[in-house]
Amino acid sequence: MNLPRLLATCALLTLATASHATERAGASIIDRQGQTVGTATLVEGPQGVMIHLTAKGLPPGPKAIHIHSVGTCDDADKGFVASKGHLNPDGRKHGLMNPEGPDAGDLPNLFVHADGSVEAELYTPLTSLDGRGGRAKILDEDGAALVIHENRDDHATQPIGGAGARVFCGVIKGD
Ligand SMILES: [Cu+2]
């Protein structure tokens, strides 16, 4: 393919992506001091979103991770409360194991190694980056954030499964 034709193809692909679908997104994860500790990538699948997360310097052990409903991590010093509650357009109860759940922001726990590192692949069939398939839209007008809590999520109790304080946060941004 010659260069002008390649550029034209790229321009068309860019146009198509901008006007229709979001296939990928990313999040830079910060701590309560505002320091970057890791990254997450989110990829749209046929029936849900695949999340790949790597981070270092976390306290070891199980940690809840959720998709919160507002895309801001600006209030690190206040504990990331500005990211609000979970992405939950259908008003479901919290908890992957709750009969009245789950809400759309629910995810399985992370398990951080003794050296503070974690790498995880998480899948949610409840969400979509751009809202396709009637799934909860992650990149809506006010965006969304990935939030990691200090404790494990018991996947049942309200409001957040006993997960405790919010200690890490990453604004989800479409590519
Ligand atoms: Cu949470």
TrEMBL record:
<feature type="signal peptide">
    <location>
        <begin position="1"/>
        <end position="21"/>
    </location>
</feature>
<comment type="similarity">
    <text>Belongs to the Cu-Zn superoxide dismutase family.</text>
</comment>
<dbReference type="InterPro" id="IPR024134">
    <property type="entry name" value="SOD_Cu/Zn_/chaperone"/>
</dbReference>
<feature type="domain" description="Superoxide dismutase copper/zinc binding">
    <location>
        <begin position="38"/>
        <end position="172"/>
    </location>
</feature>
<dbReference type="GO" id="GO:0006801">
    <property type="term" value="P:superoxide metabolic process"/>
</dbReference>
<dbReference type="GO" id="GO:0005507">
    <property type="term" value="F:copper ion binding"/>
</dbReference>
<protein>
    <submittedName>
        <fullName>Superoxide dismutase</fullName>
    </submittedName>
</protein>
<keyword id="KW-0732">Signal</keyword>
<dbReference type="InterPro" id="IPR001424">
    <property type="entry name" value="SOD_Cu_Zn_dom"/>
</dbReference>
<dbReference type="Pfam" id="PF00080">
    <property type="entry name" value="Sod_Cu"/>
</dbReference>
<dbReference type="InterPro" id="IPR036423">
    <property type="entry name" value="SOD-like_Cu/Zn_dom_sf"/>
</dbReference>
